[in-house]
Design a protein that fits this description.
It contains seven helices and seven strands. It has about 200 residues and is of the alpha/beta class. InterPro entries: SAM-dependent_MTases_sf.
Length: about 200
């Protein structure tokens, strides 16, 4: 769903997926990377905090990622930051990893700063994220960001992500946006995300 929505958004904007160099944050064993490559993306780079994820991606989908970094995006070391910056990413994807107790807001923000202005950002999140009662860090961050000048929302799609154990449907949102500019430290401080 996230890959298809990204494709739709990019093509609707008159741009070409084959020009995208994507950073897939929280890449796991490469399901999203597979979709990106299937859609003809120029480059796909995976990143995950655990080496087992990289090993699984190389085992299950050896031809998907051009590179795979094992790094903690809440505390990116200088050398990884330098190497990642060299890719000049113009797309960030993050699937099934945000607001689930997995990737914290600060890691997502770090990845956002590695994306060029004018680049694409695509991710999914559970449906409560637009709901003010959801006060988790990432929900607050996303609500602030989509109403800020730093992100332009292009697509928002509610869909049945999966069935719960009792068979009831779980709905998520897939979201595709364009990054307009780097998010300054003042924005993070203002909204209480500095050091989050
Ligand atoms: C639920 S998995 C999603 C995997 C994959 N995107 C998919 O859809 O199958 C979330 C991934 O985020 C990674 N992760 C969690 N915290 C992270 C961090 N601080 N930096 C980088 N990756 C992180 C986890 O190791 C895990 O592989």
């Amino acid at each position: 769903m996230v890959g298809d929505l990204l494709k739709f958004a990019v093509e609707s904007a008159g741009e070409n997926l084959t020009k995208l160099r994507a950073l897939d944050l929280g890449a796991g064993n490469g399901i999203m990377g597979d979709v990106l490559k299937h859609h003809g993306m120029a480059r796909a780079v995976g990143a995950d905090i655990i080496p087992e994820a990289r090993d699984a991606a190389y085992r299950d989908r050896p031809h998907v990622y051009d590179e795979y970094y094992v790094s903690d995006f809440t505390d990116l070391d200088e050398s990884d930051h330098e190497h990642l910056a060299e890719w000049s990413f113009n797309c960030l994807t993050c699937v099934a990893a945000l607001g689930f107790g997995d990737i914290p807001a600060s890691a997502f923000l770090q990845a956002m700063q590695l994306i060029q202005s004018g680049g694409w950002v695509a991710f999914n999140i559970k449906e409560t994220f637009l709901d003010k009662s959801d006060n988790s860090g990432f929900s607050r961050l996303i609500r602030e960001l989509i109403f800020s000048e730093f992100l332009d929302l292009h697509q928002l799609q509610r869909y049945r992500h999966r069935l719960a154990m009792d068979g009831s449907p779980l709905f998520y949102f897939a979201l595709v946006a364009k990054k307009n500019a780097d998010i300054p430290a003042s924005f993070l401080e203002e909204h209480g995300f500095a050091g989050a």
